Amino acid sequence: MELKGLILLDNEFTGSLPPYLFSRLHDLGVLVLSRNHFPEEFPINIRDATFLRILTLSDNNFSGPIPQSLIIILNLRNNSFQGSIPQSICTLISNLQILDVSNNNLNGEIPKEFHNLVGMINEPPNSPSPITLDAISVDFTSSWLSQEVQLSLEFRDLVMNWKHSKQVISTNKLNMCTLLDLSNNQLSGQIPTSLGALKSLKLLNISSNKLSGKIPSSFGGLENIETLDLSHNNLSGSIPPALTKLQQLTILDVSNNQLRGRIPKSGQMGTMVLDLNYFTNNSGLCGIQIRLPCPEDEGFPSRHKHSHTSHGSCGKVCGSVTQLASYSQSESRFS
Questions:
Q1: Torsions phi, psi of 98, nearest 5?
Q2: What pLDDT does 235 receive?
Q3: Among residues 285, 228, 279, 236, which one has the least CA distance to residue 256?
Q4: In angstroms, rounded to a whole number, what is the distance separating the alpha carbons of residues 237 and 92?
Q5: What global pTM score does this model have?
Q6: Residues 250/227, Cβ–Cβ less than 8 Å
Q7: Do residues 290 and 297 lie in contact, with contact meaning Cβ atoms separated by under 8 Å?
Q8: Distances in Å between the alpha carbon of 9 and those of 21, 32, 33, 126, 177?
Q9: Which 8-state DSSP code applies to residue 67?
Q10: What is the pLDDT of residue 315?
């Protein structure tokens, strides 16, 4: 029987992968090598494994370019992959549902071709079901005493930064998850508006990069998004009102940017639970969410324009809130 799944996570393996790994294992559907000590470039002949659908290499020291194959789950977090995100990844792996390349050394711009990822556009199923090798187009059956036996695959390998906490996603929920995590790299340039087409995404994390420009209003099309993390970049302008349409949004983190203006207050932006830390260290945000009036609000205190002085590690928002504590007013004044 041909090998269909190879799971070697949580070991102390070192050294190089055998160069014939994919050329000989044509039928390999799942490869999990996470949390080992592999230090080398990943074999470039991965495309020989034409049935490979799940590839998780997280928490190793793999380097070189991002491997590409016909994959639906690609987890490369916490490695040393470098270079830019190849545009071809958006066409060659168009059924990609989960892409996590966080904590690597990637640079360049985010590809505009991400709108080709139909796996992040189509609606996810409403109920979970275990992912089996059969379900990902690999016939994992064997004959034993003339009886066909179907084998399913269960493993708990994907550790994701979900809603600002690490959570393990098991295989019986993978087909409900669609996420894109590009955080903690050296990506630069503007955020492509094409990301707004990924309407089935539940998590989008592009924090801790060198991105600039404005937050695209196209993000109003991320109708299933639950967590949107844009923090620790060089984004400017205002928070687009289009984000008020995101009914599933529970976490929006725009801290440590250069954003200005009123935080939108209608729709989901006015009802979700907000944390002041998600808005700190910007150059001029205001609004009811951070208890900081905008200049155009009635009764705006004249001393506000002098409030952005040194505020310590708490950031400008906290400092402004402290100085405005004596300015007694009801929230309705800003509603």
A1: -130, 120
A2: 98
A3: 279
A4: 35
A5: 0.76
A6: yes
A7: no
A8: 17, 6, 5, 30, 21
A9: P
A10: 44
Residues in the chain: 335
CB 49 within 8 A of CB 26: yes
Residue-wise burial string across 147-180, b where 16 or more C-beta atoms lie within 10 A, e elsewhere: eeeeeebebebbbbbbeeeeeebebeebbebbbb
d(CA 198, CA 114): 8
State the Cα–Cα distance between residues 320 and 115, nearest whole angstrom: 40
- Low-confidence stretches of the chain (pLDDT < 50) are 1, 127-157, 302-335
Any idea what DSSP says for residue 223? T
Q: Which of 266, 267, 264, 268 is nearest to 279 (CA)?
A: 264
Which pLDDT does position 61 carry in this prediction? 85
Distance CA 215, CA 175 (A): 29
Q: Which amino acid is at 155?
A: F
136: nearest Cα among 27, 13, 286, 290: 27
Q: What are phi and psi of 219, to 5 degrees?
A: -65, -15
**Does residue 211 sit in helix, strand or coil?**
strand
Element (H, E) at 50: none
pLDDT at 70: 66
Name which of 190, 166, 192 is nearest 78 in CA terms.
Answer: 166
Check residue 202 and give its pLDDT. Answer: 92
Q: For residue 82, how far is the Cα from the chain centroid?
A: 18
- Rounded alpha-carbon distances, angstroms, from residue 27 to 72, 144, 223: 16, 20, 36
Expressed in angstroms, the distance from the first to the final Cα of the chain is: 67
pLDDT of 1: 45
Q: DSSP string of 227-293?
A: EEE--SSEEEE---GGGGG-TT--EEE--SSEEEEEPP-SGGGGTS---GGGT-S-SEEEBGGGTB-
CA distances from 327 to 79, 114, 299, 331 (A): 50, 47, 9, 12
pLDDT of residue 310: 35
3-state secondary structure of 106: strand
- pLDDT score for 286: 92
- Please state, in angstroms and rounded to a whole number, the distance separating the CA atoms of residues 256 and 235: 9
